[in-house]
Write a structure and sequence with these properties.
By secondary structure, the chain is an all-alpha fold. It contains four helices and no strands. The protein has helices at 5-31, 46-82, 97-102, 110-119.
Length: 125
């Protein structure tokens, strides 16, 4: 069942809100970005330096997650503009509304997503 015009407007508003949130979170992450970790032990102790390095690594991971989600939502925004939002990019079948509610950037129906994941080589060897 295809999405109604009202549902499309609702999803467009939600995607726009999420893109705004990601933009703010990215700006916050950049503002709080930690600079170079001092290696001079007379200024910074070994454990403090290790903690700072760990925080930098976590911040980098968070930034990468935000960028990935931003790309997914921008693609959803494009599909909204093209009129293909809510349609599976692989089989052209409608994506259920509850799936879109759970994942605004979902480009595939559940069956195609599962098929893609099963066909992907396992990272755990």
């Amino acid at each position: 069942m295809m999405l109604t015009q009202t549902e499309l407007q609702y999803f467009k508003a939600r995607v726009g809100e999420m893109l705004d949130e990601i933009s703010r979170a990215t700006d916050d992450a950049a503002a709080n970005d930690m600079g170079t970790v001092m290696l001079d032990q007379s200024c910074v102790g070994r454990l403090s330096r290790m903690d700072a390095l760990q925080q930098q690594a976590m911040a980098a991971g968070w930034k990468e997650t935000l960028q990935r989600e931003n790309r997914r939502l921008l693609a959803a925004w494009t599909r909204l503009g093209e009129g293909s939002f809510g349609v599976c990019c692989q089989c052209d079948e409608p994506i259920p509304k509850d799936r879109l509610e759970a994942d605004l950037g979902a480009p595939f129906c559940a069956d195609c997503q599962e098929e893609i994941e099963v066909g992907r080589p396992s990272a755990r060897l």
